Amino acid sequence: MDLKPQNLMVFDGRLKLIDLDGCVEIGTSIRTTDTWFSFSLLYCAPEFARFVASRRKTSIVASSHLDAWSVGMTIAEVACLKPVLYSQYKHYKDMEATPGAGDLNFMEWLGNSKVSPVPEAFKVFDPQLFAFLSDCLCVQEPEQRMSLRRCAAHPYIAAGRVQRMAYRVG
After folding, report:
1. Any idea where the domains of the chain sit in the sequence?
2. Which of 19, 49, 54, 93 could join 111 in a cystine, given CB atoms 3.0 to 4.6 angstroms apart?
3. What is the DSSP code string of 111-151?
4. What digits encode the pLDDT tens for the residues 118-151?
């Protein structure tokens, strides 16, 4: 539930997930009164943002759709070297007198946005990556978001494109 670049490390050439305090089992009900869960604003899915910002909804069930969004935001950040939603987040933080109000306004914006936040510049940089992220992982509605298992079979991933790109970058 708290997937982000800072929680990924490479050990002996293998990617490892660290800082597991935000992890919950799929199907776990999370309530607004719970104090044990953690999340990062810039990587949380729109439906989670709606849950946090809502004064009416008291719980949400953890699903793989939440992680799929976070993985998409993480991949996008690795590609453009900064959090994709940072400028929008900063806009809301700068508009408000208190940090909490800026966070809430950002969450409301994210939860109600109708378009994928994948930068249009990706269309020029890597059109296939843009399509993969905007059509598969960074889709506003969770039911339309591709599962991570299905993503592994997606032509962009299955063709080894990501591995080849990593060799060029690193």
Report:
1. 5-169
2. 49
3. HH--S--S-TTHHHH-HHHHHHIIIIIS-SSGGGSPPHHHH
4. 999 999 989 999 999 999 999 999 999 999 889 8
Residue 35: predicted pLDDT: 79
What CATH number matches the domain at 5-169, 1.10.540.10, 1.10.510.10, 1.10.150.120, 3.30.930.10?
Answer: 1.10.510.10
CA distance 65 to 52: 16
- Residue 137 CB neighbour total at 10 angstroms: 26
**2 — pLDDT class (breaks 50, 70, 90):** low
Q: What's the pTM value of the predicted model, to 2 decimals?
A: 0.84
Cβ atoms within 10 Å of 144's Cβ, excluding its own: 10
Percent above pLDDT 70 for the chain: 91
